[in-house]
Amino acid sequence: MLRLGVQPNVVAFSTLINGLCKQSNFSQAVSLFDEMVEKGYQPNLIAYNIILNGLCKAGDTDRAVRFLRMMEERGFKPNIVAYGTVIDCFCKKGLLEEALALFSKAKVNGNRPNIFMLCVIWDNKVRMRKQGIEPDVVTYSILVNAYCKDGMLSKARDVVDTMRKQGIEPDVVTYTTLLDGYCLQNKMGKARKVFQLMIKKGCAPDIRSYSALINGYCKAKMLDEAMELFHEISQTGPTPNSVIYNTLMQGMCQIGRVSAACEVLRLMLASGQVPNRVTCSILLDGFCKSGKLKEALKLFLAMRNSGLELNIIFYNILIDGVCKAGDIEVAKELFHEVNGLKPTVYTYNIMISALCKEGLPDEAYQLFRSMGDNDCLPDRISYNVIIEGFFRNSYTTKATELLAEMVGKGFSANLCTSILYVDLLLRCNESTLI
User: Coiled-coil regions in this chain (predicted)?
Assistant: First the structure.
């Protein structure tokens, strides 16, 4: 390349460095990396990881650690691959204390341990103990958290069992992490057992423990169990916070028990907790989805009069509810109020769909074409909504034109639009045959 007067780029250097590493020419690979830097090229994360991998294969942990520091000094934040490579090298050389220290640093720097890194640390626990290095509750909790987030609950439970065998009692963070892991997989029986176990072991659940279990019950639609636990903490546990109240109200609204959600709101107010915007949006959405438009509008006006800063989400919820109830005029009024907040694509799509359903395709088209004026370009859903509306209102020519325009912009028709278009083609063929 150089003889031809062609200057190599970072990709070319990285490819050559990778090739040298694969041939175990590590010293030559490092020299080429240094030459690359001297010539003013800025190595990317891939180039750094290639060199790190090469140094670790050569067993040069000191230089690998220096490379990690160099990456940070040059503004490159080492990723989980970089940390995992060096940790693996430390473990293979028996430098387990250094491996644990780097593992902790990776966590502090915002890297979530992957399965490879977890296996490296976990598989070396026996060698760690032989060298007098005993993982503490923090290290074990990190492992439990990582396994839970990757859905490997049996592994997480093994870690907790190992802790106890080693005489290290799990703390509230460890138990809550495992409990939440079970909740995320809808294994509420096992989550409850972990909760009961921590109490039995003298580890008092904190507000996060209760919040995780209540959230799990709500997502599993086990609202009676969620309320039972709520009453339990109201009497003996930590004071319920707004997160717990909001979680309960969300759960109630999702199964249509809006009256029960309102009762939870009354309990929240009685406890001295102040409802926030999340609380109000949950109730507003609950009223709209259960067809209680009067209550929804009353709540909306109360929020606006109270000085609560209403964002576009509140308007979207109410406009959608009003449109589904068939009150297009009220929806129009609300939409015009939105202008100060700047409607989103979702806001436009709600209105366009409603106008088409009410037999007002011309108004829908006018609104569709005005989206660009508000710096809100139509998306795939916008096109499909108006094309479907035109087909259903027998605006077949306009629908076909918009279909071609949509495809030209790189959007695709959804199933409903496709069926309506095919139906049109079949009807046209039939009329030709007749």
Answer: none
Q: Which two tokens stand for residue 189?
A: 């029986």
Task: Report how far apart, in Å, the C-alpha atoms of 383 and of each of 179, 360, 410, 433 are.
Answer: 45, 16, 11, 32
pTM (predicted TM-score): 0.69
Contact 32, 13 (CB under 8 A): yes
Give residue-wise pLDDT tens across range 334-352. 998 885 788 999 999 999 9
CATH of 1-110, one of 3.40.1190.10, 3.40.190.10, 1.25.40.10, 1.20.1560.10: 1.25.40.10
Length of the chain: 434
Domain positions in the chain are: 1-110, 338-434
Among candidates 192, 146, 202, which has minimal Cα distance to 170?
202
CA distances from 402 to 50, 387, 412, 425 (A): 50, 7, 12, 16
Q: Which CATH architecture has domain 338-434?
A: Alpha Horseshoe (1.25)
The CA distance from 217 to 240, in Å, is: 16
